[in-house]
Every structure is written in structure tokens, then in C-alpha cells.
Amino acid sequence: MLHDSQTTLLCVPTRFELDRLRVLAPEAVAPERWAGVAVIGFGPVAAAAAVSRLIAQRAPKHLILAGIAGTYGAASEAGSAITFGSVAMDGVGAGEGAAFVRPSTMGFPQWEGKLRDDESAVAAVFDRLDLESEGPELLTVAAAADGSAMLEARRARFPDAVAEDMEGFGVALAAAMGNVGVSIVRGFSNVAGNRDPKTWAIDDALGAVAEWLER
């Protein structure tokens, strides 16, 4: 889905990611290209709070969340970037490990109220939101997977997810509550669970993100 860049706010989670994008492709993240370029913070809570404030201050029509993520696929995917059609949230619920219970099972929505400009319906958001772009599902987590056991547990709970990030669901919920569309593009810097930064492809991943932004 195409949007007018002059009414689109570009959101990047960390200063590190934005600084690398400015080195790799300065024209893709130039402030004059967008309604604004903002660092929104690390993790779902900071990102949701920052985006809520930005929507109130700048009233964009659309948001793009851009940055790196860990793929649930093969190592060969590192360095590529994709957009997502939905985003889910893991970690909100009860228990941990195999005993973890999701909000949908508990019957407690994370949010129950109006979303977007639909005044006729009350939405119950448990742990999944649709996005404006086409693509697979992204899983938002509060802590990146530290190995194969954590990774496989998450894949068992969310079998449709192909990658994990730490901001997407918070941004998507804040945008939906603020009547703003949102797209998420993530470059795969590593296979989720691999915590050795020396093996990551951060610049390749962000370069692929920049190519998407330029298009």
C-alpha cells in the first residue's frame, strides 16, 4: 500500500539504527522526505508511549516502523528485509515456558474499546493486530530469544510468526488507538536466538530496509 511520504511519520526504535541508516542511505531517512523522523525507544512500552505522543503532536496519517529484527527462518535470510501483514505480542499473560497462558485463553483483552475511526464497534485486542501492508506475521517480545529453547517455545505459541522484534505490537496498538495506519518493515540482522553480534548482518539488514524506504 502506497502512502504520501509527506503525511507519513518514520519511526526507528534506537538511535543506533537511525545513525546507521543515515550512513548507509541518508536520502532514505532525510527529514524533508517525511512528515518526521523519530527515535521511539527500545522495547514495546517505550515505543507505544513515544508513538502516542508523536501522534498527538504531529497528527500523521500513516506510520512506518523501520529497523532490525531476528528471523525465525534460515541464516541465509540475514541481510534481507520484509514487510508484515500482522503483528502479535508474546509475554503478556500468566506463567512462563510451557505453562504460559495467553490473554486470549485467560479471557482478558489487552485493550477493549474503540479502534481507528469506527464508532460502531468495540474491539477486543488480545495479542494480535492486522497491519496495512501485506506479508507474514511478526512477533513482538519484551526480551529477545537467548537460544533455541526460547525460540522454539515462541514458535509453538505463534506458529505463523516468521520473525521477532521488540516494538511492533506496541506501535501498532498505539497507532490503532490514534486512528493512524501503520506499516512495519524489518531487516533481518540475525537468526533469533543467536546472541553473538559478531555474526550479525546489521548493515546488510538496514541497507535492505533503506531500499524499501526509497521505493
TrEMBL record:
Catalytic activity, EC: 3.2.2.26
Hydrolase as UniProt keyword: yes
GO cellular component: cytosol
Domain annotation Nucleoside phosphorylase: ranges: 37-210
Top-level EC class as recorded in UniProt: hydrolase
Gene Ontology biological process: L-methionine salvage from S-adenosylmethionine; nucleoside metabolic process
Residue spans crossing the bilayer: 34-56
SUPFAM superfamilies for the chain: Purine and uridine phosphorylases
Single GO MF descriptor: methylthioadenosine nucleosidase activity
UniProt keyword terms in alphabetical order: Glycosidase, Hydrolase, Membrane, Transmembrane, Transmembrane helix
Pfam families noted in UniProt: PNP_UDP_1 (PF01048)
InterPro entries noted in UniProt: Nucleoside_phosphorylase_d (IPR000845), Nucleoside_phosphorylase_sf (IPR035994)
Protein name in UniProt: Futalosine hydrolase
Originating organism: Saltatorellus ferox
